[in-house]
Amino acid sequence: MSFGKRLQIFIDLFFKKGGWKRVVGVGLRNTLLIAVAGLLIGIVIGTLIAIVRVMPKYKRLPRILNGICSVYVGFFRGTPIVVQLLIANFVLFPLMHVSIAPLTICIIIFGMNSGAYVSEIMRGGIQSVDAGQLEAGRAVGLPYWTAMLKIVIPQAVKNILPTLGNEFITLVKDTSVVSFIAAVDLSKCFTEIGNIRYEYFIPYFAMAIVYLVLVMLISLGVKMLERRLQRSERTH
Question: What whole-number distance in Å separates Cα of residue 6 and Cα of residue 230?
Fold first, then answer.
């Protein structure tokens, strides 16, 4: 089949038959929902783990928490995210007799997976902040966790912003595997378009372009935020 014929089939299915409505209204929406919610959950989990990992280990409780966090990070960084989705959907939740929608499972697993990676990113950011900042906070009577959350973490976030942007980009691209548990995302919608006529060349090429545009927009947004933070620091 010629390229022109393939293109005409795709245009007909995508525009005239309304395929774009499902791509934008369901696929793109779910892809961004999973990635954004996953990153937000990951930042919360990752920040808490990072704080535990950098805590002094003089007492027993910090050592126990550090061991738990190490196992958590090791599991989620050491196994593919598609395996984590399969375990959650077909093993963990069924054993717990809990019925959860595939989209919700994706958000939970993506958030927990992101938390493992963000924890290492945040730990590096915390360690890049002058130790005197934490000591100053403790000197004026702030508890360890309060000093970390109000003094150290805000400075660490500025240092790791580009890396967090990369983590968001990774999450957006990784959503292409959620169809393994019957969740609908961009890749699933374009595959459905290809399934109608068993012609996948143009749909998959179009899908690649959509992902590329998303990544470019995210990269642009991160750069703009970086410049704004830099201008804010210079004015202060």
Answer: 48
SS3 call for 158: helix
Q: How far is residue 172's CA from residue 4's CA, in Å, rounded to a whole number?
A: 31
Residues whose CB is less than 8 angstroms from the CB of residue 152 and which lie 6 or more positions away in sequence, other chains included = 126, 129, 133, 134, 137
Cβ neighbourhood burial of 5 (10 Å; 0-12, 13-18, 19+): exposed
Amino acid letter, 12: D
pLDDT given at position 91: 94
Terminal CA-CA length for the chain: 63
- Asked whether residue 169 carries a pLDDT value surpassing 80, the answer given is yes
Token digits of residue 126: 């915390």
* pTM score, whole prediction: 0.89
